[in-house]
Specification:
Order of helices and strands: EEHEEEHHHHHHEHEHEHEHEHH
Radius of gyration: 26 Å
Number of domains: 3
CATH architecture of the largest domain: 2-Layer Sandwich
Strand content: 15-25%
Helix content: 40-55%
Number of helices: 13
Length: 343
């Protein structure tokens, strides 16, 4: 998505701010444009929600506008397959940022609006150049799409298409963050609905999303299959792994882990991380029986007496205390894991 021109105008049709990017080839009379947008906004407000004007089609671009309190934010942009709500959220973000900084100035007669152009333009360009807000806004829509699917307003097939199409053009780092959110929805799906047919349909849709978006990731990326009841620890590990092109996948139980490993189709390597206060002998035996393409890290506060005996050790399992720090444990995983060599 490329922003060519962005305008902030009053409801009465006065131009407060105009951003013109280097890609813009428009020479627009600001007074005419602001008056037109203000009139268009009034006209659209008289229509029902189902009939309102969302954008105007230009020859090569599209013009969008949205109302945010006492201002209208309008933009001309080159759009390709972007969800309408993403554009609306981004424009509202700009509008709120403008009101936060300049609402007081709007009440000052004769205020020189040219004086804010340079500073506010830098903020706007920072938003567009990093794409952070854009990508986070798209990820926020996943929750909205899931809610609609759970309510029966959006089919699993359409859910899959909407989410996949939103992120096909994203960078690998952003796709990894998105996959993390999709995996968490899949993990929590059992508690979201009691309908077995709906749950099966959504599980398949989420699996297809994961498969489609995973193709964008670098070929040498690896994965950590993470079993933990501590969501904070998982989030820390997940964020740290992104910098290593490692993708964390949350797994509820060791039994679930066995199913994932059995049907693992990805050619990339993976290691397993178990992070909980302790581990039972039965769970430890299950871990020993799981084939892994990498190491199995068991990070616990209390190591059972039975596991301290060398005879209980396993060549592929690294048993460690959680303490003294999460960072040290993470460094240990990174140093000993074959995943580092894979990247």
């Amino acid at each position: 998505m490329i922003i060519k021109d962005l305008f902030i105008v009053s409801n009465e049709g006065r131009t407060y701010y105009h951003y013109k990017s280097a890609t813009s080839n428009y020479n627009i009379d600001l007074n005419l444009f602001s008056g037109f947008v203000a009139a268009l906004s009034v006209f659209t407000s008289s229509l029902s929600e189902q009939k309102k004007i969302e954008f105007l089609k230009l020859q090569d671009d599209e013009m969008y506008f949205t109302v945010e309190q006492d201002i209208i934010v309008a933009s001309i942009m080159a759009v390709s397959g972007v969800e309408q709500r993403v554009i609306e959220y981004l424009m509202k973000f700009v509008g709120k940022k403008f009101l936060d900084k300049h609402f007081v100035n709007m009440k000052k007669p004769g205020f020189n609006w040219d004086s804010i152009t340079e500073a506010f333009t830098k903020e706007i360009e920072d938003v567009w150049s990093t794409d952070d807000v854009y990508e986070e806004t798209k990820r926020e829509l996943i929750s909205e799409f899931m809610a609609k699917s759970l309510e029966g307003e959006l089919s699993p097939e359409l859910l899959q298409w909407k989410i996949t199409s939103l992120f096909l053009g994203s960078t690998p780092d952003e796709v990894e963050k998105t996959l993390g959110k999709v995996y968490r929805f899949k993990e929590d799906l059992f508690s979201m609905t009691n309908d077995p047919i709906l749950r099966a349909g959504l599980t398949e849709a989420l699996d297809n999303i994961i498969q489609d978006l995973s193709k964008i990731l670098p070929k040498k990326s690896g994965s950590l299959l993470v079993i933990t009841d501590n969501r904070d620890h998982y989030e820390l590990l997940y964020r740290k792994c992104l910098g290593y092109h490692l993708f964390c996948i949350p797994v509820k139980t060791i039994d679930d882990l066995k199913s994932i490993v059995t049907f693992w189709k990805d050619e990339t390597s993976y290691s397993i991380v178990y992070m909980n206060p302790t581990i039972s002998i039965e769970e430890y035996r299950k871990l020993k029986s799981i084939p892994s393409k990498g190491k199995i890290f068991v990070w616990i506060n209390k190591i059972p007496t039975e596991l301290r005996d060398k005879s209980a050790s396993h060549h592929n399992i690294k048993l460690s205390h959680q303490l003294p720090s999460f960072s040290e444990m993470f460094s240990k995983i990174m140093k000993e894991s074959e995943l580092i060599e894979a990247t």
